[in-house]
What we know:
The protein has 358 residues and is α/β, with parallel strands linked by helices. Helix content is 23%, strand content 32%. It contains ten helices and 19 strands. A ten-stranded mixed β-sheet has the order 10-12-11-13-14-19-18-17-15-16, with helices on both faces. A seven-stranded mixed β-barrel has the order 1-2-8-6-4-3-9. Strands 5-7 form a two-stranded parallel sheet. Helix 8 crosses helix 9.
Amino acid sequence: MKALLMLENGSCFEGTGFGCEKDTLCEVVFNSAMCGYTELLTDPSYAGQGVVMTYPLIGNYGICYDDAESPRPWLSAYIVHRVSDVASNFRADTDLNTFLKDNSVPGIENIDTRTLTKVLRESGTMKGMIAYGDSVDKERMMEKIKAYRLKSLVPQVSCREPRVYGDGSVKVSLIDYGVKNNIIRSLVSRGCTVKRFPHSATLEDVMAFDPDGIMLTNGPGDPKECVKEITELKRIYEHGIPTFAICLGHQLMALAHGFDTYKLKYGHRGINHPVKRTSTGRVYITSQNHGFVVDEKTVDPSVADVSFKSMNDGSIEGLTYKNGKVFSVQFHPEAAPGPHDTAFLFDRFMSLMGGERL
């Protein structure tokens, strides 16, 4: 079926539908990864977004459920230049088109994703709409785009009830703002028992598990919308328990200390983002997926040190708090964008909790 992508600045891109061909509104962003689309599709941090892939051919190795970061895809739409007709991979459980159809995710292909990405880089992230059919009402589409507002997303992607993973000797209370499975796997593989709590968990909830540490996870949306979560993080920090925060968790912990955050023009999304560790000068290639960052001008040096910075735009990629028990990163150390270089951060967390380093 014919499909049309319209952005809020009036730009239009004609293509062909795939997946579940239903009209949808979303925030349009781009991702520069060449692979890892199964992980991307099932990453809760993409909730509410239509993701443009800069790599021209997607789907050639199919979908492997073992690689998924959650039980279902969360993004609102998938935008690619071309979907592979063949899923050539002995591990594949299904093909990309079928996976999106089965999970009601709309897609559009056969569009100029290079030009679309340039528009997003120059004008910034925008709202957009995909409509299907031989004839679409562009004026009506623009009205819907202008009226569209992203709702609070963390409550949609967080778990509803606590759940326990692993049976190790070190206990971790994990607050789920939209957790990726590999964060949990990274802790369990190091000898942890992880209890996953909903985003609304209080200090009393997480401490009732008698944990050795707290894990704050990634998640979607504007961190400033998480008002109650930020209030609880103030209490958790004051309690003095070892805490490791990733992505949205990193931003929320910063806000809990009175630091500010702001929205990037077009975000960091991909598996090839270089960051530098300020203490050593060493550069790491990282996986990233975020549209907001902590404002360095608002970081109180008596409270926290900047531990990592982006080599692309100089934005903050990590903070280490002066109490010696709390640290956070903006990137994803649980991911494997080729190297496993930043997995040592989980070992650091284990050391803070008194566990052994693998």
